[in-house]
What we know:
The chain is α+β, with helices and mostly antiparallel strands. It contains 18 helices and 13 strands. α10 crosses α12. The model is unreliable at about 5-10 and about 400-410 (pLDDT under 50).
Amino acid sequence: MSDLEFFLFLVPPILAVLIILNLFKRKQKFPNLPPGDMGWPFLGETIGYLRPYSATTIGDFMQDHISRYGKIYKSNLFGEPTIVSADAGLNRYILQNEGRLFECSYPRSIGGILGKWSMLVLVGQMHRDMRMISLNFLSNARLRNQLLSEVEKHTLLVLGSWKQDSVVCAQDEAKKFTFNFMAEHIMSLQPGKPETEQLKKEYITFMKGVVSAPLNFPGTAYRKALQSRSTILGFIERKMEERLKEMKGNENDLLGWVLKKSNLSKEQILDLLLSLLFAGHETSSVAIALSIYFLESCPAAVQQLTEEHLEISRAKKQSGETELNWDDYKKMEFTQCVISETLRLGNVVRFLHRKAVKDVRYKGYDIPCGWKVLPVISAVHLDPSLFDRPHNFDPWRWQNKQGSPSGNGGSTGTSSTTKSSNNFMPFGGGPRLCAGSELAKLEMAIFIHYLVLNFHWQLSAPDQAFAYPYVDFPNGLPIIIQYREKENTTRLAAPA
């Protein structure tokens, strides 16, 4: 036997030994992986995990896995070995250790469509820089002095178009409201103008692709979204060039602000504006649609909201004022309870994508470095051990007082209030806490203010929220609306 033949003879057994030793070492290194099922090769359990289900539940897949394996289990999702967490403590631990033990890790397809400079996919110092820009532009002073009045204006523009006994698709109306607001907020685009409507049309196509399967073939939603992304970025770039050419120092919108006060490149600005248009439009509109849906079946909550907002409206009339101000907003205490309960039960953001950057041990389980980690926010919000009767819409659970209206089926005490608050994470947490969380709550509160003062509504056809896993109403949430008695209404004309 020649040396070459002898070498080739030895290669297979040597490789086999090395593979066995490597597997043995990994088993020794991580002896306590959580229980679970890795599913099919490559696909894993992704198809089952993403199967649509009622948005007010955690779905059969999650329920079955928690029942079999507990609140922390292993799986193979999105083509990667994954630790799934429905455990409130682990979820907080993951979010609070962002950048130290864990980092953001969204599927590559998300970065491909939102852009590599999108805040959603950035990590480290660049994410902190981008987030600081957003926080500065969404400062408390700006919310008080400028954005509140803009939110009010766009609310009135949408609700002012509703006609007596007409049927409107509440989801589409909410999207119209948030898109028009963000388009003006970001680039000073005016609602109803041809360029704004064209951008909205492209954005709808873009959004369908963001939440679709990442199949980059002709005719697919993903391919169409990539084309719309190119069109939208071209539009934003032309706006940038106009500003730079005219040397306009308009800091009232985000485009002008970043051009004057940041050192971002053109590509970074384009991705930042696109991602903020996505984040600021989509999540807020879904939350508003959910509040309309939940309130429709909870007349006690509508009654208490109406009383709260009538008191604010009467005080405005007595003082001779018309536009809402920050003091009025701070009086909307029960409204904030409704907002919190909508976000808890509806779960606009159901889970987050993270990755372990170090070997982690939690509650005796090993989380290997490089593994994907999914903190499932909705599973915590719907956990009966943390929230009393979690599948009930009960805004009174957020009040620091005993009981709720008779017949409402609400919470009966305050012992769980603190516990519930500690496990309430609709905007994430830690260093990546949503920069627009306060703006989102402001939008919801102002919209609810004018909604309950001016309209009765009910579903005109059956519909409910589904998780795909993004939340959507299959029929657009069609409602038939009627005006309230005249003495209870307030103006529905936008300020000049």
